[in-house]
Design brief:
- The longest helix is centred in the middle third of the chain and has 28 residues, at 119-146.
- By secondary structure, the protein is an all-alpha fold.
- It contains nine helices and no strands.
Length: 201
């Protein structure tokens, strides 16, 4: 007979998993990937280290779960930001949201964007960048469609923007506090790079 978890047991396990991910996120925000350990996460979450291992086989699996949780939240924020407005408003909102949220938690953003990690986590990072690029792509495609942007491949331009923004953020994220000009300069760069027509500004 196959054992099936009751809804109550599954709910308890899900809550425990969420608590562990929350603890890992706090450790990453404070100490980065290099300072993350199963014991540190257990201490942060107020549980035994063995309990962490029951949910996650290793550190890479745990960090992947953090990426899934945090990135989903960040991507949703950027997606919502580009939902309305003209092309300048959409692109500006995408850049301001992406960069602004990163600068509010620079250590965690540094982990998500560039801190050296193992191969499994690096694969998660690539999916993370593609998800953000998809949000930028929708804003660019809108601008091309309404004629306020010159003809271009929205997916190519979106990937280039996300890469450029991530590269610029590495400096401010690695050396807090960030310069106040970072976000305005990124917005101006994005608008120029996409070829926004002067009459739309």
């Amino acid at each position: 007979m196959v054992y099936r978890r009751t809804p109550a047991v599954q709910a308890r396990l899900d809550a425990q998993r969420a608590l562990i991910v929350q603890g890992a996120t706090a450790v990453l925000s404070r100490d980065g990937f290099a300072g993350l350990s199963m014991a540190a996460v257990a201490g942060e979450a107020g549980i035994a280290t063995g309990t962490v291992y029951k949910q996650f086989a290793n550190k890479a699996e745990l960090v992947a779960a953090v990426f899934d949780t945090v990135v989903a939240r960040e991507v949703d924020a950027v997606r919502a930001a580009v939902a309305e407005g003209d092309v300048v408003q959409r692109v500006s909102a995408a850049v301001e949201t992406f960069a602004g949220r990163a600068l509010k938690n620079p250590k965690l953003a540094y982990v998500l964007l560039v801190e050296p990690v193992d191969a499994a986590v690096d694969a998660q990072r690539l999916r993370f960048r593609r998800a953000f690029a998809a949000s930028f792509e929708s804003a660019i495609a809108h601008g091309v469609g309404e004629g306020t942007l010159p003809a271009q491949d929205p997916s190519f331009s979106a990937a280039a923007l996300v890469g450029a923004i991530g590269e610029v953020l590495v400096g401010p994220l690695a050396a807090a506090p960030p310069a106040e000009r970072v976000i305005p300069e990124l917005v101006a760069f994005a608008v120029r790079a996409l070829g926004v027509r002067p009459e739309t500004l």
